[in-house]
Amino acid sequence: MSSMKKQIGEKLRELRKENGWTQQQVADMLGVSRVNYTRYELNASEPDFDILVRLADLFDVSLDYIFDRTKYH
């Protein structure tokens, strides 16, 4: 499970940077604090299912992509 957590944070950081967004911008779009979003990228906290779905929608990717189960958006 810890390797999956690592991959989620890495994917979120990668997707955020691809879009040219700051952590604050993503947090604002999700309606969470920047500290909470930063914790997702650092794998210090796991986003709940609702946040995961919102992240997938925001980045226009599948949940499989976020969980590193596919290489394609």
Features of this protein?
single chain, 73 residues, mainly alpha, 434 Repressor (Amino-terminal Domain), 66% helix, globular
Quick overview of this protein structure:
This protein is mainly alpha-helical and 73 residues long.
Commentary on this structure:
With 73 residues, the chain is mainly alpha-helical. The protein has a single domain, classed as 434 Repressor (Amino-terminal Domain). Helices cover 66% and strands 0% of the residues. It is built from five helices and no strands. The chain has helices at residues 2-18, 23-30, 34-41, 49-59, 63-66.
Radius of gyration: 11 Å
Number of E strands: 0
| Ends distance | 22 Å
CATH architecture: Orthogonal Bundle
| Fraction of residues in β-strands | under 5%
Q: In CATH's first tier, which class applies?
A: Mainly Alpha
